[in-house]
């Protein structure tokens, strides 16, 4: 475990969880606003009181483009994509789990964090029904919660699956909580991925959302790529910053798709999410 992860673990054992001061990280939030060229005077409420100094959550202004992206990647008709994308918004069980976790931690979390592009992960999990999802980078666990809910719904329809996630932060994943389909491994993917893949199990869905450097992302994708299931999908949360996924897709013979998000009512201009998969034929979910 890296030194910063060990230091964080020690601080958390002593009751000094860094999450407690998220709303008070005024300088960090001001820097984030300035970094994208947004005026501080228009975003002073964010700087003073928002609980997200990084890893921002927001709704999307371009949902139709997300629908098209999921349809292209999955090979499923638009009507099926719209149906599964709408599920989280009317899911009482999902809402109850969010209220029980994020809703009770208002000091460091939005009570109902917007799901945004993570609904794209959910939709692909619902449509492709992977037996194994691997997630590198968990943070609070909002994406993990959505993936687990997708797996739960799939299981109710006869398609079992599980999620294995990696993060170096001992407090990662608190929104998702415990789940019998989830293995959360507090270790670097550099250590964990080779051990996981040594068993030879095919990966149905891989999500890179960990250390956002070209070298690290390239390593993760190159490690998982050869063990991707025939209908599996590689996803990167960071294609606006590095060409790692596009390069790996070209080398592995995968088709590459990109989605650029447009946030609603947020200073952050949005990121780009990419996916790589063998060219799918259109099917009905």
Distance between the termini: 41 Å
- Residue fraction in strands: 15-25%
Strand order of the largest sheet: 3-2-1-4-5-7-6
Please count the beta strands (DSSP E, at least 2 residues each).
Answer: 7
Structural class: alpha/beta
| Number of separate helices | 11
Mean pLDDT: 92
Order of H and E elements: HHHHHHHEHEEHEHEHEE
The radius of gyration over CA amounts to 18 Å
Low-pLDDT parts are none
Helix content: 25-40%
> Could you describe the largest sheet, including whether it forms a barrel?
7 strands, mixed
Shape: globular
Architecture overview:
The protein has 285 residues and is α/β, with parallel strands linked by helices. 40% of the residues lie in helices and 15% in strands. The chain is built from 11 helices and 7 strands. The chain has helices at residues 3-13, 26-35, 44-49, 63-74, 78-86, 92-101, 118-128, 142-156, 189-197, 214-224, 244-252; strands at residues 132-136, 162-167, 182-186, 203-208, 228-236, 255-260, 272-277. Strands 3-2-1-4-5-7-6 form a 7-stranded mixed β-sheet, with helices on both faces. Helix 8 (142-156) links the parallel strand 1 and strand 2 (162-167). Helix 4 (63-74) runs parallel beside helix 7 and helix 5 crosses helix 7 (118-128). The longest helix is centred in the middle third of the chain and has 15 residues, at 142-156. The radius of gyration is 18 Å and the shape is globular. The protein starts with a helix and ends in an 8-residue tail after the last strand. The model has no long low-confidence stretch (mean pLDDT 92).
């Amino acid at each position: 475990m890296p030194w910063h992860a060990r230091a964080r673990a020690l601080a958390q054992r002593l009751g000094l969880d860094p999450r407690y001061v998220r709303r008070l990280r005024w300088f960090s939030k001001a820097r984030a606003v300035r970094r994208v060229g947004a005026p501080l005077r228009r975003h002073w409420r964010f700087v003073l009181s928002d609980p997200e100094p990084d890893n921002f959550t927001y709704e999307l202004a371009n949902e139709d483009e997300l629908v098209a992206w999921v349809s292209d990647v999955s090979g499923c008709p638009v009507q099926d994509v719209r149906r599964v994308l709408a599920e989280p918004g009317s899911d009482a069980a999902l809402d109850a789990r969010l209220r029980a976790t994020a809703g009770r931690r208002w000091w460091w979390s939005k009570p109902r964090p917007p799901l945004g592009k993570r609904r794209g992960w959910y939709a692909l999990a619902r449509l492709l029904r992977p037996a194994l999802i691997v997630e590198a980078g968990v943070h609070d666990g909002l994406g993990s919660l959505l993936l687990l809910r997708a797996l739960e719904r799939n299981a109710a329809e006869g398609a079992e699956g599980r999620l294995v996630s990696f993060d170096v932060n001992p407090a990662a994943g608190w929104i998702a909580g415990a789940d019998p389909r989830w293995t959360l491994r507090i270790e670097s993917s550099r250590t964990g991925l080779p051990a996981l893949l040594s068993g030879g199990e095919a990966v149905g869905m891989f999500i890179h959302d960990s250390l956002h450097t070209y070298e690290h992302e390239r390593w993760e994708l190159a490690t998982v790529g050869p063990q991707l299931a025939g209908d599996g999908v590689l996803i990167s949360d960071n294609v606006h910053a590095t060409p790692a996924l596009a390069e790996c897709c070209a080398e592995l013979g995968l088709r590459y798709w990109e989605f650029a998000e447009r946030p609603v009512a947020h200073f952050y201009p949005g990121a780009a999410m990419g996916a790589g998969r063998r060219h799918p034929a259109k099917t009905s979910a």
